[in-house]
TrEMBL record:
<dbReference type="InterPro" id="IPR011051">
    <property type="entry name" value="RmlC_Cupin_sf"/>
</dbReference>
<feature type="domain" description="Cupin type-2">
    <location>
        <begin position="63"/>
        <end position="110"/>
    </location>
</feature>
<dbReference type="Pfam" id="PF07883">
    <property type="entry name" value="Cupin_2"/>
</dbReference>
<protein>
    <submittedName>
        <fullName>Cupin domain-containing protein</fullName>
    </submittedName>
</protein>
<dbReference type="InterPro" id="IPR014710">
    <property type="entry name" value="RmlC-like_jellyroll"/>
</dbReference>
<dbReference type="InterPro" id="IPR013096">
    <property type="entry name" value="Cupin_2"/>
</dbReference>
């Protein structure tokens, strides 16, 4: 085992496209688990572009991540809301919807919730 690992999301172990070409998840799997980079295109919404893949009423992933660029709104099933933008750390529990704000792709790195994200049920 090596003490240093260098990988690129541009050569991901797996890429999962979202419905209607509204983005993708690039996944790297390391010894400590998966890390993902999601690119959510303008107009992306979880209920429209991932729900058909996941088959659940709301997102069931727990996310711990960092917003690289763009903006996203998250609405919990109980109505709690938050907006995230560049430089924000995010922690979101299961049971939510989300969508891209504005006309710029939202890029998020997540080291907790993307292992099974956008994976067919």
């Amino acid at each position: 085992m090596t003490g240093i690992v260098r990988r690129s999301f541009d050569s991901a172990d797996e890429t999962r496209p979202f419905e209607d070409g509204k983005g993708r998840l690039d996944l790297l799997t390391g010894v400590r688990g998966p890390v993902g980079r999601a690119v959510f295109e303008p107009g992306w919404q979880w209920t429209k572009h991932v729900k058909p893949i996941a088959g659940t009423d709301s997102c069931r992933a727990a996310h711990v991540g960092y917003v690289v660029s763009g903006r996203m709104k998250v609405v919990m099933d109980d109505g709690e809301t938050e907006e995230f933008g560049p430089g924000d750390f995010m922690q979101v529990e299961p049971g939510h919807d989300a969508w891209v704000l504005d006309d710029e792709p939202c890029v998020v790195l997540d080291w907790a919730g993307f292992g099974d994200y956008a994976k067919p049920a």
